[in-house]
Predict the 3D structure of the following.
Amino acid sequence: MYNEVVITSLTKMCFVFVCSLVALLGFAKNVYADSGYPRILNWWGGYNTNTNADYFAGFNLWSMASAGTSQSSKDRADAVHALNPNTKVLVTATIITASDPGRGLDNQPQWWNASPGSPDYACILRNSVGTILRDVTYNAAYANLGNTYCRDTIVNYLINRWNLSGGHFDGITVDLVDDSGVSITLGNDIDANVDGVPDDIATVNADHASGVIDIFQRLRAAFPGMIIFCNGSPPYFSQWINGRLFEMDIKRYLDNDYGRPWSEIIHNFSVWTSKNTISPNTTSVLNTPDSVTMRSKYNFQNIWTAIKPEMMVEYGTDYNRMRFGLVSTMMAGGMYHYDLGPYMWGSNWWYDEYGTRGQVSSLGYLGQSIDSPMLISQITAPDQVVNGNFSSGTSPWFVSTSGSTVVATYNIENGSAHIQIGGASSGWVTFRENYVSVEAGKYYTLSFKAKANTSRYNGVRIQRAGGAWEYLAQAAYNIRFFTDWTQYYYVMKAIGTGTNGTLLFDLGIAAGDIYFDDIVFQEGVGGVWQRHFKNGTILLNEGPLQQTVTLDKTYRKLNGSQAPLYFQRIDDDQAIAVGSWSILAASFDQWGLKIHSINAPNANASLTYNFTIPYAGEYDVLAWVAPLTTYSKNVTVSINGVDVNLDQSLGSLGWHSLGKFNFNQTSTVVIKPLGTGVVIGDAFKVVSIARYNDGGVVNQVTLQPNDAIILLNTTPTETTLTPTPTVIPGDANSDGKVDGADYVIWLNHYDQNASGYSNGDFNNSGKVDGADYIIWLNNYGI
């Protein structure tokens, strides 16, 4: 029996009521909480004889590209559940878009057949002349979620569909979810009330967002145990949904078109994984192969028929990108999916880092995390910033403004820089310090802590002070500041040289309060992060340079034959051309967007590919060939001075091996059109014979830029890195389980300024509050 507790507030009474029910009836604990990492999902993966139930049972979550109404879909779900009851199988629910008749899922044919003036006519968003609006990417129409009648139709339909699903599935997946509205997709001429007049866009967007929330609230109320998993949505949606998919962030970061530091991206993921209150937490991250070329060559309409199987296989071999995304996701505590998306789903790839394909027991082999991500590589170069911790007052930092109505003040508040912006319609505000020095071609790391009273986006740059004010280093303009203190690391490559560089933060003109502290600017790159798990560790190099780090102890690599230790693919547009080559558009059989072409013989022409080899050893050299009978049978290819023959007229589509060679640091491949016929310059690739996961025992690792690795403890029974026991979130009395006794400890300290697990302060915020209760609740029964 627990001691009687006197409750002195209505809030405590509410918590007691809820928790008493939990203790009495039992709480369905997070099914992923004890499954360990990696946690992986399959989004819209196809099901066929090559990817059977054994395959999908190896995932924590499988989101079917199906409404789940067919018997075959139900049988597939049952087969997966039979092999792994913990795999959650979801079906797709169409809520945001309005599927065309005979196309897509969850059709509402009455909307498409409706006459003007009828309630159903308003359920598809139209412009002011009555034309149905569609987005340009997917050619999809959108449901009018601001209309109560239309929302009722959707909710009633989905409730009925779920009731008829017979318990074969665990939840639903919903695409294209956010609270920003529809005008960004459909434009500004939206006539939601179909009166022939464009509506106020702010109202349309607000009504759409409110409609999305209303639908999720009603579905959650109707089915408390149903998993609701969304592609998109802000953190406060975690009141109603189990998690969201971050579809673009890691892909854009690796494609260098995002402008946000890795640490901020991971913070975004972590916010969702930590704020989720509904079990199981399905917050997930998608990553793709190198999509810079892919998105230029394919689109959502043509890729399904245009992409060749050989291309699909090759895209799947971007192992470094796969590892980077997987380890990034584990740093944030989420689930991971690697695919060709967003243009094409269902690649059904499997990687050694996931575990053993077809063996459910290998799922989550690393176990639980036992600490938070740590930056373990340090930069030793001097800090160029003066008074970056603001311990000496405001100088030499200052605020600059432009615009007659812009007002901004700068002072020191609680030991940190505080900039208050009054708000204006035009102009700018910057926070800066002179002078820093940079040298073209070198890398520099800017680290700082920041927060704002409301979430906002800011930028940072290095410019020459005075004169032309030209940029001296690459800039970032999409760094998001949050309401809590966040540590940022941003790597900048100098594009100019100068000793008079200004370190400058662009703050915008929106009204608000912004805080800075611990600003440091150093030459060099750190960027290696580590996180420990029960059965091993993960490391990630987020920077642009190779990094070698000494490990905290001896580990063992995974043992797999799939990924090479190193590979490099170079397309012809990166080669050095000499002579009269023609540059032609590449076909769907050929790599990239362009090819080089020349008629042989031509002794004065060449095409040179320069490879960087970080690991000395034996490499296979391969040429991408899309054979045609008119192409040359005797292309001379020189590999570090050794000539070999390449026949481009015969054989299968794909890589043709030119032999194995020993390389050290560099390798040069040169096409010489010395034979006859048409010579094509396309992609070449070098692939190490050595494997990335070779099972070796290591006490240091070398990581290439934007790469990562998973390592195992050398002693499989090892559970911690130190004699200190692993703390289970919510376990206030440290007895190894989260139960009612821990709840009583939390309750006895509720609303008190107390810190530490032993007092019920499970998030170490210094105060025992509702957030700590949620941590206890999510881990109850573990």
